[in-house]
Every structure is written in C-alpha cells, then in structure tokens.
Amino acid sequence: MKMLPYCFFxxxxxxxxxxxxxxxxxxxxxxxxxxxxxxxxxxxxADLQAGVDSVLTVVNASLSTYIPTSTISxxxxxxxxxxxxxxxRINFLKSAEVWLKSRGAFDPTVGPLVNAWGFGFQKMAGxxxxxxxxxxxxxxxxxxxxxxxxxxxxxxxxxVDFSAIAKGYGVDQVALYLxxxxxxxxxxxxxxxxRAAGQKAKGFDWIAGIxxxxxxxxxxxxxxxxxxxxxxxxxxxxxxxxxxxxLDGKKYAHTIHPKTGYPALSNLLSASVIASDCMxxxxxxxxxxxxxxxxxxxxxxxxxxxxxxxxxxxxQGKLQQYISPGLQQLVIExx
Length: 335
Hints:
The protein contains 9 helices and 16 strands. By secondary structure, it is α+β, with helices and mostly antiparallel strands. Helix 4 (about 85-100) packs across helix 8 (about 280-290) and helix 8 packs antiparallel against helix 9. The longest helix has 16 residues, at about 50-65.
C-alpha cells in the first residue's frame, strides 16, 4: 500500500479557505486497502459519495486480489485463465503498453515473487533463497498471458497482480464519474495517486506536493521536497521509502525486478510521474523504480506525454532531483 502523501494533507487543510468565493466540497472513505479523498469546487451534489462508492465497488470486484470472488482472483485460481470483465481488459491492455514501452520493467506477473518477499496478498512463506526465486521465475513473464475472445488465457502457475496500476485506474474511473455528474473542477486521490481537473478556484490551480524520500515505514516523519500545479493531469509516485522491511541488517523493498526476482534497489529513491491519465502515471512510476535513475530518465524523455520528478542519491549519497523539461518552469521549490 502506498501511504497517503503529505501533499494531499495540504490540499485538505486549505479546502475551507479558498482564495475566491468558490465553495470547496470534501469527501473521503476507505477503498482498495487504503483511502480516497476528493475535493471539488461548487455546490454540494446530492448522493455523490454513494455514486463514488459504487464506482469503486465495481473496481474492487474486478481487480482486488484480496476478494476471493473478484475477477482477478478467479483468473488466478484457474489453471489456464477465465472470463474477463471490462476493468480487467482495460488494465491488461494498459499493462501490455507499459510493459512494451518500459522494455519489460513493468510486469504484473511478478505476483508470486511479491508474495514470496512478503509484500503481496499472501503471507511470506518462510525464508527466501535463490532456489525459491529460481523456482518462481518460471511463472513470471508477460508473454505468458494473452487475451483470447472474452477470456484471459495464461500459462499454468502464472499469477496476475494489477496492484501497481489498479489505484490509478480507480482514480480515473472516479474522475469520469464526477465529470458525468457535471463536476468539472476537482482533484481525486486514492492511496497517493492523483488526478486533477479544472481549477481549485478562478486563477488558482490545484497544487500537489512531492515528499522527500525519507526511510520511514510508519509515515510519521514527512517533509515536502517540492510542489507543482496540476490541471487536467494526473500524478503518481512510487518509492521504496515507505513499504520495506529490514532483516539481518539488509533492506528489502516492495518493488520487485521481474527479470531478477529480487527487490529492485538502486540510487533512484522515488519517481513521481505526470501523465494525462492516472493509470499511465501509476504504471510508469513503478517501471521507473524498477529501472533505476538513468534508464528511468531516458524513458521519461523518450515517451511523449510523460513528465517526471525523479529523486535519487548521487555518488556521495546526497539527495538530488531530476525535473523533466516540461515541468521545470512549473515546480515550486520548498526551502
């Protein structure tokens, strides 16, 4: 689970003190093992939260690996696959796109490895050694999945886990619902993934913040690295500074490299990716963390429509940041 970012606390605290006369409404609730927060401008819309909860119930019923009857659970429980629903189809196609563009760094078939390392929907099965990793690697690889008609077909033993893209998809679905209800100025957050539309108030954009990547599993020590305006854009942040554990003096982080089977540790500490949709931002942020700083920078500069803030440590261990060209005039540095 990605912890709630410091940036959104700022948004909520300022929601009642808008710079204009526009009224800001707030909603929040549990979903996907975390929470959602929504702020929108304008008069309160009746039954809006019930509608949002219904949208997220549909998302969970398809993509949650923690619900035994979900579509993804049925697929994983079957030796060769099962019928798809629309959320699974959309997540599969977007994952295939990001897998290709990231040259395999993003791969939702790492589920068995994530579980083995203790970060998945199953409990860690004892000591992890090279023999266990080698035995699980035979089940990892996007090429072991395909769509055939209305079904997702897989090789036996393959486990699909869209947790690195599902929250972004949930954000996008809520955003579509808000627009369908006639709301054009809003920001949606689920577990740290954001999508903003319109403006907070006339002349004032929604502002999102990016945390300093400080090792702190509890999430109690937070500091802001920088902030930037979001208008009709999405942002997702991935990092190894919240979801990790230490064993025998060694750090094990939740981002698993699909080509090695081991936690992907590099000098890249966090990746905040900005895209038009939150699904893409979510998936590419994970891919960046797998790839490391230099390859992630090359990916962001290569792919049209992507911007990013990459925070990394240099050879002296000092915190550095890369801001892609399209963001350099927008970011607000924090002293």
